[in-house]
Amino acid sequence: MAGKIYGIGVGIGDPEDITLKAIERIKESDILICPRKDLDKCRAYQTVARVFPGVERIKTMALEFEMTSDRKSREQNHRVIYEEVKRLVEEGKVVTFLTIGDPAIYSTYSYIADLAQKDGIETLAVSGVSSITACANALGIILCEGGEQLHVIPDTKALEASLKLPGTKVIMKCGRDMPLLKKILSVHRDESLVYAVSDCGTDREKCYRGLEELPDGGNYMLTVIVKERSCIYES
User: Mapping DSSP to helix (H, G, I), strand (E, B) and coil, where does residue 42 land?
Assistant: First the structure.
């Protein structure tokens, strides 16, 4: 009997954010796919382990996705990983990708699910708390309301153009480009309010309010939120 592929969103690091549905699907799994062999350093796995001690009895497999801008190389890497997962599924295994955040937002699982669906393999994604909403809630701010637009920016490659978009901009994983980011944001100081959160959902979480508070860099897991001043209600 053919197996299945699951993509389980485990949130951003706080084990209390993991849903009951996620835990139940993990319990059904034969193999858990993790991005690194050292499980002590795997954020997704350790998040699950804090609320489901039995996870240690489930077999794990480390499959590394290449983080490269070269599309051809990236697609070849995805194909190699998929063929390994496909072999397990054809053996009747339930293969589960533990995904930080939500599997529908910039997750490595999505590449495998796309290939699997083309081959008629059953896939299931379970929602998790995303860094986009978690950071806004940690700051105590609203991402968007009324007719306000929300734009998710995955990197800083086209930052100047992205900042011209209307509404709220969420810039993800930009800690390593902070000097450039702060320089560009300073130009928009009069029109925008800037917030940021690093290591959201962990015991190292830190919130920043205002361009002056933003760190100079170093933290990859840093999310910046830029809101238009005209959209902020001031009493």
Answer: coil
Angle at 13 between CA 7 and CA 18, to 5 degrees: 55
Q: Which domain holds residue 166?
A: 131-231
Domain count for the chain: 2
Q: What is the pLDDT along the chain (235 residues), one digit of tens a residue?
A: 579 999 999 999 899 999 999 999 999 999 999 877 888 889 999 999 999 999 999 999 988 776 667 778 888 888 989 999 999 999 999 999 999 999 999 998 999 999 999 999 999 999 999 999 999 999 999 999 999 999 999 887 888 888 889 999 999 877 777 888 888 888 877 778 999 999 998 888 999 999 999 888 767 788 999 998 765 544 3
CB 126 within 8 A of CB 22: yes
- Asked if 93 and 143 sit in the same domain, the reply is no
- Same domain? 108 vs 145: no
Q: How many alpha carbons fall within 13 Å on the CB side of residue 72? A: 0
β pairing state of 222-228 and 192-198 = antiparallel
Strand partners for 222? 198
Contact 144, 167 (CB under 8 A): yes
Is the sign of the CA dihedral 95, 124, 63, 118 positive or negative? Answer: positive
Domain match, 16 and 121 both: yes
The amino acid at residue 225 is I
